[in-house]
Design a protein that fits this description.
globular; alpha/beta; 7-stranded mixed beta sheet; 7 helices; 3-stranded parallel beta sheet; 19% strand
């Protein structure tokens, strides 16, 4: 028969196993990165996602908020924002929240355009080192924002690990072994400390 490994999908009637990044891993990695960077500073944060009806994004956000208060019990979520995958809207919505919540000093993205909007806000307002934004994905423009200091970091899905892991799962099944049905490939935090190495290791064309 044919062995089928699903990537970021779930169809137990037709698939032998599933692998991909668990959305909760994104939120956990973002919380750990934010708390490590802000150290003893008070955290007033706003997660931003494509829209509030996206169940995958909601899972990531809920995991972020849970891990954040676990690591920094006094941290406060002062807003939950949407961006409709539009960087300009992300920047506008962050700006509006800053007016009503002047203590806002951080955000995390569950949409790559959310991070780009936050980076633009940090650059335009001269908030480097004062406003801590975490992006999502490892597209060249997001990695440049990390290099330039407009983003504290970004959370990348582990696509290489997903592909490699899928092959390993299929091989084990074909050889008669057993595997777990759900397999998490994890998420990677990219910050100023490791962004250049990430680019080199993944052969990312920064001029794309």
């Amino acid at each position: 028969g044919v062995t089928i490994i699903a990537i970021d999908a779930d169809d137990p009637d037709r698939c032998d196993a599933v692998i991909g990044t668990n959305p909760a891993s994104i939120g956990i990695a973002a919380a750990e990165t934010l708390v490590a960077a802000m150290k003893d500073q008070d955290i007033y944060c706003a997660p931003m996602q494509t829209n509030m009806s996206n169940t995958v994004a909601n899972t990531a956000r809920e995991a972020f908020e849970k891990k954040l208060v676990e690591l920094a019990p006094n941290a406060k979520i002062v807003g939950r924002l949407e961006c409709d995958s539009n960087a300009a809207k992300a920047q506008d919505n962050l700006s509006a929240l800053m007016l009503s919540e002047p203590n806002l000093n951080s955000m995390m993205s569950i949409d790559s355009y959310a991070g780009l909007g936050a980076a633009a806000l940090v650059e335009d307002r001269g908030l480097k080192g004062k406003f801590f934004a975490i992006g999502m994905d490892d597209a060249p423009e997001i990695l440049r924002a990390v290099q330039d200091g407009y983003l504290l970091g970004t959370i990348a899905l582990n696509w290489y690990g997903t592909g490699y892991g899928a092959c390993e799962l299929a091989k084990t099944i074909r050889e008669g072994g057993t595997v777990e049905y759900n397999n998490d490939a994890g998420a990677n935090a990219i910050t100023a400390e490791n962004v250049d190495q990430w680019i080199a290791d993944h052969d990312i064309d920064m001029n794309a």
